[in-house]
Amino acid sequence: PNESEKFTEFYILGPEGKAENYPEVLVQGEEAKLIVGIVNHEHEAMNYGVDVSIDGEKILEVGPITLANAGEWEQDISFTSTRIGNRQEVRLSLHKGMTGEVYREVHFWIDVVAPK
Predict the structure, then answer these.
(1) Are 49 and 84 a contacting pair, CB within 8 Å?
(2) CA dist list (Å): 110 to 21, 32, 53
(3) What is the pLDDT of residue 97?
(4) What pLDDT was estimated at residue 3?
């Protein structure tokens, strides 16, 4: 049999479940919310993990997540930033299997302002 391509979908959605309205400006210590999704097309069960970092500093780990072939996973996540500054990179990294290596990444930027 001819096997089709093996891959994993990895995506983020805004709080309303659409590919828009990602957090852009946060007050220091304020919680930001996203939806993270994974879809397994690897033709076998897989273990996954997701790391969230801001400007290279890991702030959240999610997993392990085990998905059968064609399995789908979506979860609300929230995070906070404690460092004030503009254009901070929020990076979500997907790890596949037990290697610990980054398999896929998505990112966006936020500005973090001081509370009034």
Answers:
(1) no
(2) 12, 10, 12
(3) 81
(4) 66
As a 3-state breakdown, the chain gives helix, strand, coil percent values, each rounded to 5, of 0, 65, 35
- Tracing tokens 């304020």 back to the chain, one arrives at 30
Cis peptide before 15 (omega within 30 of 0): no
pLDDT digits (tens, 9 = 90+) for 29-52: 999 999 999 999 999 999 999 999
Phi-psi region of 88 (alpha: psi -120 to 50; beta: other; left: phi over 0): beta
Which amino acid does the sequence have at 14? G
DSSP 2: -
- Mark out the alpha helices in the chain (DSSP H runs): none
Radius of gyration of the chain from its Cα atoms, rounded to whole angstroms:
16
Task: Give the helix/strand (H/E) hosting 10.
Answer: strand 7-13
- Residue pair 90/111 in contact (Cβ under 8 Å)? The answer is no
pTM beyond 0.70, yes or no: yes
In eight-state DSSP terms, residue 42 is S
